[in-house]
Design a protein that fits this description.
single chain; elongated
Length: 150
């Protein structure tokens, strides 16, 4: 029988309880100790994977498309054009509600975009490139699971 337990070894109570139960064991046992991942770091890893996918697949595809149209833009400019299109937010005057400018979010370090926003951004870029520009792209990760669930 295989059992998995997560124990916070920083908690004196949990550590003491674990060591007390551990001391009661008799016979042959195999133990695997693995540092538990913080759920936040899992989201950070997923966001970083999406960022890599975005730059490797989508920015490159957009750059190649524009080059074929006679617009040899750099990768950085292609990224800027995509984020300006899909991460733009209006800056409002708090007293009048008037739009006084615009801000463009950043996905460079992920500080401006959480996992859900990053997923929406990549999905929007995918739809734009595939549907409007007719660029052949690999299936968006998780797209088939969403179709089955719908």
């Amino acid at each position: 029988m295989k059992e998995t337990y997560t124990i916070n070894m920083s908690s004196p109570e949990e550590r003491a309880l674990f060591l007390n139960e551990f001391a009661k064991l008799r016979g042959m046992h195999t133990f695997t100790v693995q540092r538990a991942k913080d759920p936040k770091s899992n989201a950070d890893e997923r966001r970083a994977a999406l960022r890599r996918l975005y730059f490797v697949v989508y920015v490159s595809a957009y750059k190649n498309y524009l080059a074929a149209q006679g617009q040899p833009f750099t990768r950085n400019l292609c990224h800027y054009l995509l984020k300006r299109r899909f991460l733009k937010n209006d800056i409002l005057d708090e007293t009048t509600g008037e739009i006084i400018g615009e801000a463009v979010g950043s996905i460079a370090d992920g500080s401006d975009v959480d996992l859900q926003d990053m997923q929406a951004f990549v999905r929007n870029v995918h739809q734009f490139l595939a549907n409007e520009l007719r660029i052949d792209l690999p299936e968006l990760p998780g797209a088939r699971a969403r179709e089955v669930a719908a």
